[in-house]
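Entry 14. Ran structure prediction on the chain below.
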Amino acid sequence: MAFSEDLEQRLAFLNLGDADRERLERLRPMIEKNADSFVAAFYRHLLSFQPTRELLRDPEVKDRLLKKQREYLLSLTSPSFDESFERERRRIGEVHERIGLEPRWYLGAYSIYFSLLAPLVYEEFGPDPRAAQGHLISLQKLLTLDAELAMESYIDRKQSELEYLADELAKEGRRLAEDYETQKVELRLTADRARAAEELASVATLVAGLAHEIGTPMGVIQGHAKLLENAVQGEDASWRLRTIQEQIGRISKIIQTLLNMARPGRTRRLPVELPALIESSLSFVREKLGRRRIEIDKEIAAAGTVRGDAERLQQLSATSSSTPPTPCPTAASCRSRSASTRRRRRSAWWSTTPASGSSRPSWSRSSIPSSRPNRRGRAAAWA
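Output, structure tokens:
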């Protein structure tokens, strides 16, 4: 008979040997005769308590329990003490852990077994109390060994579940820590954006107030200039009055642009004529370029129409046009690379042809390519 080292040590500690196995085998006829009444008494005892009664509510579970209890009772009379014996006892513990039976009920069942078997043993060996005592001691050793193996299996299974839950809890803790760090970064970014939005709102309020303060006196000047149209005489005076009115109009447009930037509305994607848009944008920068002795000679080739927000496209075009190219100091002409779309680069020529009636250079583009929306939907306008 092959013993595992662990089982051999257990048998030695309990002093459970061949003599005990022989005494247990002599109990088999008596146990077989009383097996049905024993199982019925054990079952009635289980029904006396609510937790065990709940487990036996299903008729199929009840029938299976009665069958298994009878098989276990008979196995007490023929223990093999080998690997199959140890595996079966441990399986019993796993089953009870799986169905949720608490250890107190499970361990108590071994005591019920002994209390129901003891009277039968004394009845069997009545004339010889020492023989009855020896058989009961052997029976107690075997029940103790069964309880040890089953409970250790119960504990091992429960420990495995706890380790699994601990691992899952650790993983969840790490995930929560990562989520916390991510949310902390997102919160910081949100706070930065909120702070930037607040600062922009303050700037917008300042710009709106400034535009209003400038717009009011400009309206007054415009009104008086209108009244002076019939009062001035001479071409030179009329030209100067028109110049004043034009510059007032330009200032009014700039003020309106500032107001639009300070109070941006919802984007409106409507058809926009590029020639008119470019002309309007150049009107904002023509005087600035003129002070730098740069004249603009524009030539627009098949510009066409795009869909977009006219006001925002004008802001983009005015911003791009407000930075003039650096003149080539000696060459007759110089080549300047234009901004490119992601599909291809476009180039333009700035010539140093003197302006009419002037010795200063006139910077002109040779051609204005048609606008094409880039990948972000923004039109590149050229002037």
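The chain has a mean pLDDT of 75. Will compare against last week's run tomorrow.
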